[in-house]
Amino acid sequence: MTQRTAEPPPEAAPQGPQGFLAEVKDAVSVRAALLVIGVLALQLAFIASYIGAFHQPAPHEIKLAVVTPAPPITDQAVEQLSALPGDPLAPRAVEDEATALEQIGNRDVDGALLIDPRGTRDRLLVASGNGSSLSQALTEVVLRAEAARQRTVVVADVVPVDEGDARGLSAFYLVIGWCVGGYLCAAILAISAGARPANGARAVIRLGALLLYSIVAGLLGAVIAGPVLDALPGSVPALWGLGTLLVFAVGAITLAFQGVAGVIGIGLAILVVVVLGNPSAGGAYPWPLLPPFWRAIGPYFPPGAGTYAARSIAYFKGNGMAMSMWVLAGWAVLGSAVTVAAAMVRRGRGGPAVGTTPDPAPPAGAGV
After folding, report:
1. pLDDT tens digits for 108-136?
2. pTM for the complete prediction?
3. d(CA 309, CA 170)
């Protein structure tokens, strides 16, 4: 009987390069390092945008109606107010107090100055529903201008904010909450099944799920801000519709960016909605108080359009919000179209959904 000799132990596998640098390379991939750099850039952009927009608010062309008993006096007052240093006001002549009140209610002007040439006391009508900081800035500018002419002013708030709406910011906070929900929902839908849809059907399903979420989020947000907390007056159904459109628009933008750029698309959506959109939304400081860049882009980004529309619903019977709704509808349509188009272009190149396990390969030698 022959004895089998023990086989020599296998040689140890050669080890890779040693040292701290090698450990770093193993721990942090190049892709992760690039993503971290992208996060740093996004963070710095966030800091620069918010501080740049808010650090030095100054009034610029606040729309002011001017009323006097005689056209020549009105024209002279408009000319004097237009010549103020820095162009803080954009005065316009109107016929009478009733017309001025109508224009304030329609959001055509931010206030009205009623000049009485028979005395030295005038009246200033403001609307804090436009934003308390805006009505305060308008009051300060007019008081200085009138004091220079040895005149005094009595201020009346004709569209005051609700008791529960501190400084008129509830509309802005509601819109920000809706925006956050929109891009987080879209991000979760994408990450749960691959950042880029494998086909058009999957893209449509994601958009459908986003629409259902938007309907629920819009309703609950309107109910919380209105009946529950009593922070925002106005029609709950109207706020519900606005919230649904806003959440869907932001979510569609996020899905579109993800369809084009994958996971990086989430960062691009944050850049558009948070870094650019929030500081220019006109929340803490309405548009006439923002620097030129933020003042110019604010009405065309979802947070700005949403904030303006929410204030219109709450305090101005929905007047003046048509443009904002068209802006939100445009973002929703564009985001949806890009989402589906990106999925169709990538058709046939999508891998398995994230979280699924592909079928194991058959063992070698398996039957054909």
Report:
1. 999 999 999 999 999 999 999 999 999 99
2. 0.85
3. 13
